[in-house]
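User: Is it possible to get a 3D structure for a protein together with its bound compound? The compound here is nickel (II) ion. I've pasted both below.
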Amino acid sequence: MVATWPEPIVSVQALSQTGLSTVPNRYVKPVHQRPVYNSDQSDLDMEVPVLDMRDVWKKPEGLKRVRNACEEWGFFQVVNHGVDYALMESVRGAWREFFDLPVEMKRKYANSPDTYEGYGSRIGVVKDAKLDWSDYFFLNYLPSSIRNPSKWPSQPPKIRKLIEEYGEEVRKLCERLVETLSESLGLEPNHLMKAFGGEDKVGANLRANFYPKCPQPHLTLGLSSHSDPGGITIVLPDEKVAGLQVRRGDCWVTVKSVPNALIVNIGDQVQILSNGIYKSVEHQVVVNSGMDRVSLALFYNPRSDIPIGPVKELLTEDRPALYKPIRFDEYRLLIRQKGPSGKNQVDSLLAST
Ligand code: OGA
Ligand code: NI
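Assistant: Yes, that's possible. Here is the predicted structure of the complex:
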């Protein structure tokens, strides 16, 4: 694996703070990738479903709604999820303080493409690629054997403790969600977690995203269209600034976040395990000229060293296995080299190709 980036890294936040009036060419996306703002979102069918954990946990009616959301959208917002609201606000605030540190301090955590751990501004090592208008901090959370808080930010002082507390609560939510997904697929409650390799062996990473304000938001993207490679993702959105868009047919639907909700989305590994019943849907982030945006994405992934393929109980004569099994560490490597590119990766595993 390549150990360095193909070009020097530029902090987009530092660039934005120079007050430039045009977007440098390396962030200008080709016309067909530029943001589309679908103006008519009055139709309720055009809103990402909102589910209440109290209504779906072990409730047949609720499980149907989960199934519908995962088949149709690959995304839902969840409320009454058990993660403390004040903790959500504090951890997001702490990350905002981290990104507000001088760039020289953040550079001490500069990451490299072999592990991605640390502070960075690009995904993928393709030379001359068009870059996204964002910076991030990526860290390993699970399994605890690869957790190394000394690589996490040390400023602001409370941040490490907050990451651990938030990570713990989101881990518990993910365990309930995996069980809920399993039941909603008609499987035994623990079936999907077993297929993930067991709760002691799963992986989790946290990515804190910083999307600086941008002088020409219609020319670029904060995060290019992609599907998440892992199992499920829990996004803590910015409480004030929208930006996440989900693909719905030919439209991009902007998520209007409900107060205190978390956003849940299906990743490629659950699409594979469910044999395509659940969809890992493309999404992207648009930026704006007025406000910076901070979000936290926690990626909850299957154990990385076992083959992940369609669950046998979900296969039928009419619907044989769509995907070839692959280990998550192999799968992730391909994405880390290429960077975000729609759904090309999971599609390339289709058994017929
Ligand atoms: C991601 C992602 C969405 C957001 O980090 O993979 O899709 O709102 N983030 O930042
Ligand atoms: Ni994503």
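Residues 273 and 310 are 4 Å apart (CA to CA). The chain has a mean pLDDT of 94.
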